[in-house]
Amino acid sequence: MNRQNHEIILTLPADANFVDIVRLVLYGISTKWGFSYEDIEDMKVAVAEACNNAVLHAYKGREAGRMEVKFRNTGSGIQISVKDEGSSFDYEQKERLATSLHDKDLSEIRAGGLGIYMMQALMDEVQVNTDTGTEVVLTKFLQGNEEMA
Ligand SMILES: Nc1ncnc2c1ncn2[C@@H]1O[C@H](COP(=O)(O)OP(=O)(O)OP(=O)(O)O)[C@@H](O)[C@H]1O
Ligand SMILES: [Mg+2]
Question: Is residue 71 part of a domain?
């Protein structure tokens, strides 16, 4: 079966109680699409970080809203978008700060503020759109030896 451009979309309350649903769906889909156990574990952590950011930061100080999680088969891998309609942040500025992170002593790095670095370390590509709310797009490519079922 050609699964390219197959898409699964979840709309959930931006609430910590729903993040495990996202992880379960990710597990089901990425198994079906031929990802290795290691890649699935990495994706589960990265996607949970993106969802936790929507839960914790997007709707701070206002009525809790929704998050939309979209899983898309690109043919060469999976693209996972986590989107909220909350207040956004200056991703470019965070990126500039990140480039100097490895020059710092461990004690200088504040606790927290690691979610985006973790997503970058665990995924092949991370894009952040902050036009309306925040959308984090996480990409993982299938390895050559993995077969798309
Ligand atoms: N969906 C979002 N909506 C609004 N602001 C966000 C969103 N995601 C990230 N941010 C902003 O970017 C910052 C960095 O996010 P990151 O996940 O790297 O760290 P953190 O959430 O502060 O801490 P940690 O993830 O380590 O617990 C956040 O503190 C927040 O200010
Ligand atoms: Mg975070």
Answer: yes
Q: Would you say residue 55 lies in a domain?
A: yes
Pairing of strands 77-84, 7-13: unpaired
Its domain, for residue 78, covers 7-87+118-141
Distance, in Å, from the CA atom of 108 to the CA atom of 100, rounded to the nearest integer, reads 12
Mutate to test the pocket of ligand 1, among 89, 93, 117 (most ligand atoms within 8 A of CB): 89
How many structural domains does the chain have?
1
Prediction pTM value = 0.90
Name residues with Cβ closer than 5 Å to ligand 2, which is an ion: 53, 115
Give kind and range of the element (H or E) at residue 117.
Answer: helix 115-122
Give residue-wise pLDDT tens across range 60-84: 988 989 999 999 999 999 999 999 9
Atom of ligand 1 nearest to the CA of 136: 1
Q: Is 96 a member of any domain?
A: no
